[in-house]
Design brief:
single chain; 105 residues; mainly alpha; Arc Repressor Mutant, subunit A; two-stranded antiparallel sheet; 5 helices; 2 strands; 45% helix; globular
Length: 105
């Protein structure tokens, strides 16, 4: 684990860069977290996925897999890979400040 400063707040990240405590996440961190993942501009579709990831985590205690994300977020799997080319569920989870979803490598 390591401490990282994001949007002027010190947060604990695990060795893969996921938040240890999702309650430390704030909306103000999103653009900086996205930049760390190579996403320079966040579209409405990015935000839709990020909000969906957080709501699923808060409701179920885990983030959705890519398959579930593509079926229930309102964004197609094809578009998910365009928005988050390095892996939709994994990258969106990092940006949303939640743990890595099951099934992510």
């Amino acid at each position: 684990m390591s401490t990282s400063t994001i949007a002027n707040i010190d947060v604990e990240l695990n060795n893969e860069g996921f938040f240890v405590d999702p309650d430390q996440w704030t909306v103000d961190m999103v653009s900086e977290l996205a930049l760390r993942e190579g996403i320079e501009e966040l579209t409405d579709a990015h935000w839709q996925v990020i909000r969906f990831m957080r709501s699923e985590y808060l409701a179920k205690g885990t983030g959705p897999t890519v398959r579930v994300l593509g079926k229930t977020s309102g964004v197609s799997i094809k578009e998910l890979y365009q928005l988050f080319p390095k892996g939709p569920a994994k990258v969106a989870a990092k940006i949303a400040g939640i743990p890595k979803p099951r099934g992510c490598i």
